[in-house]
Amino acid sequence: MIPEEPIFSKPTRILYFNQHNTVEVCRFAGEVIRHGGLVAFPTETVYGLGADALNQQAVKNIFNAKERPADNPLIVHVSCIDEVKRIAKSTPKIAQVLMDAFWPGPLTLVLPRKNIVPDVTTGGLDTVAVRMPDHPVALGLIKEAGVPIAAPSANTSGKPSPTTAQHVMDDLGGKIDMIIDGGRVVIGVESTVIDVTGNIPALLRPGGVGIEALQEIVGRIRVSTPKDVNVPHSPGVKYAHYSPEATVVLVTGDDVAGAIKKLAEEYEGKIGLLLCKETAETVGDKGRKIILGSRGDVKSIARNLFYSLRLLDKQRVELIIADGSFSVEGVGLAAMNRLKKASSKLIHTR
């Protein structure tokens, strides 16, 4: 955490977004950003905590509010492709191809950084992570602020990412200036992060764009390995992330239902079960059951994951057993990645 004076116990104002007041809400919040404030806002992925990416003190305040490690870089959000030139030293041809294919949308590109971007925003790296979100509030806010906006997820570092404005208030109320309430987000997990600074694009973090869709556009993609994360070029790869207060056990393999039923029957405390629809029918009646979706419906699995982890925390369960029998195609890979990071134990059945 960056050792600056705490910014806590400030009043946090909530603005409610609807289709009729987009301009007014974004104009008001944009002024807060321009003056160095912190605004939480909805995107298509999760809620972000935004500040002027070029204002060193404002970005430091993000780290303080979130209690975030200083070497964990932030994603800089832009409202159009042309704005990338302001913060990136160069745009490789493959980056342009990916922007044309997936922006606006849940894809972040790691590019060579210009010196205008302060070290605090990039974690001291010579690269900058950039994306153009696909949400009217996010795009409107960036335009009205007139600056690129640095925005990690709007939660206390290490907790499940927020998918509603209430999640943001639960974690950051009294620590930030404003929250724009745009309802529950659509995707529910963060963006995919691709490093395009090397000869072969590298997947640093799976997210809202599936690797299959990326491969259709650019061909080969290298998947980063654990040894790559000592110097993180992307958020969400080095530190503990996405963990609720309850202990999480992830069950995968051929007999997920049998293993979950046995674990639930043996546990004496308050228990929650995150299940695929097919598994829920066979695991018995013990515990608070939440159905994330069918095994092949990975969009529902992803959208409901963080929301459900936070819901079970509200219900004060002590153990969460998570069903890992869903597909890992598309955004399913991101959902599995987040569950593995949230879990303290992995059980693979045969």
From TrEMBL:
<keyword id="KW-0808">Transferase</keyword>
<comment type="similarity">
    <text>Belongs to the SUA5 family.</text>
</comment>
<keyword id="KW-0548">Nucleotidyltransferase</keyword>
<dbReference type="InterPro" id="IPR017945">
    <property type="entry name" value="DHBP_synth_RibB-like_a/b_dom"/>
</dbReference>
<dbReference type="Pfam" id="PF03481">
    <property type="entry name" value="Sua5_C"/>
</dbReference>
<feature type="binding site">
    <location>
        <position position="68"/>
    </location>
    <ligand>
        <name>L-threonine</name>
    </ligand>
</feature>
<feature type="binding site">
    <location>
        <position position="161"/>
    </location>
    <ligand>
        <name>ATP</name>
    </ligand>
</feature>
<keyword id="KW-0067">ATP-binding</keyword>
<dbReference type="GO" id="GO:0061710">
    <property type="term" value="F:L-threonylcarbamoyladenylate synthase"/>
</dbReference>
<dbReference type="GO" id="GO:0003725">
    <property type="term" value="F:double-stranded RNA binding"/>
</dbReference>
<feature type="binding site">
    <location>
        <position position="205"/>
    </location>
    <ligand>
        <name>ATP</name>
    </ligand>
</feature>
<keyword id="KW-0963">Cytoplasm</keyword>
<dbReference type="InterPro" id="IPR010923">
    <property type="entry name" value="T(6)A37_SUA5"/>
</dbReference>
<dbReference type="GO" id="GO:0000049">
    <property type="term" value="F:tRNA binding"/>
</dbReference>
<feature type="binding site">
    <location>
        <position position="131"/>
    </location>
    <ligand>
        <name>L-threonine</name>
    </ligand>
</feature>
<dbReference type="InterPro" id="IPR006070">
    <property type="entry name" value="Sua5-like_dom"/>
</dbReference>
<keyword id="KW-0819">tRNA processing</keyword>
<protein>
    <recommendedName>
        <fullName>Threonylcarbamoyl-AMP synthase</fullName>
        <ecNumber>2.7.7.87</ecNumber>
    </recommendedName>
</protein>
<feature type="binding site">
    <location>
        <position position="151"/>
    </location>
    <ligand>
        <name>L-threonine</name>
    </ligand>
</feature>
<feature type="binding site">
    <location>
        <position position="191"/>
    </location>
    <ligand>
        <name>L-threonine</name>
    </ligand>
</feature>
<dbReference type="GO" id="GO:0005737">
    <property type="term" value="C:cytoplasm"/>
</dbReference>
<dbReference type="InterPro" id="IPR038385">
    <property type="entry name" value="Sua5/YwlC_C"/>
</dbReference>
<feature type="binding site">
    <location>
        <position position="45"/>
    </location>
    <ligand>
        <name>L-threonine</name>
    </ligand>
</feature>
<dbReference type="Pfam" id="PF01300">
    <property type="entry name" value="Sua5_yciO_yrdC"/>
</dbReference>
<dbReference type="GO" id="GO:0005524">
    <property type="term" value="F:ATP binding"/>
</dbReference>
<feature type="domain" description="YrdC-like">
    <location>
        <begin position="23"/>
        <end position="209"/>
    </location>
</feature>
<dbReference type="GO" id="GO:0008033">
    <property type="term" value="P:tRNA processing"/>
</dbReference>
<dbReference type="InterPro" id="IPR005145">
    <property type="entry name" value="Sua5_C"/>
</dbReference>
<comment type="function">
    <text>Required for the formation of a threonylcarbamoyl group on adenosine at position 37 (t(6)A37) in tRNAs that read codons beginning with adenine.</text>
</comment>
<dbReference type="InterPro" id="IPR050156">
    <property type="entry name" value="TC-AMP_synthase_SUA5"/>
</dbReference>
<feature type="binding site">
    <location>
        <position position="127"/>
    </location>
    <ligand>
        <name>ATP</name>
    </ligand>
</feature>
<feature type="binding site">
    <location>
        <position position="153"/>
    </location>
    <ligand>
        <name>ATP</name>
    </ligand>
</feature>
<dbReference type="GO" id="GO:0006450">
    <property type="term" value="P:regulation of translational fidelity"/>
</dbReference>
<feature type="binding site">
    <location>
        <position position="77"/>
    </location>
    <ligand>
        <name>L-threonine</name>
    </ligand>
</feature>
<feature type="binding site">
    <location>
        <position position="72"/>
    </location>
    <ligand>
        <name>ATP</name>
    </ligand>
</feature>
<keyword id="KW-0547">Nucleotide-binding</keyword>
<feature type="binding site">
    <location>
        <position position="242"/>
    </location>
    <ligand>
        <name>ATP</name>
    </ligand>
</feature>
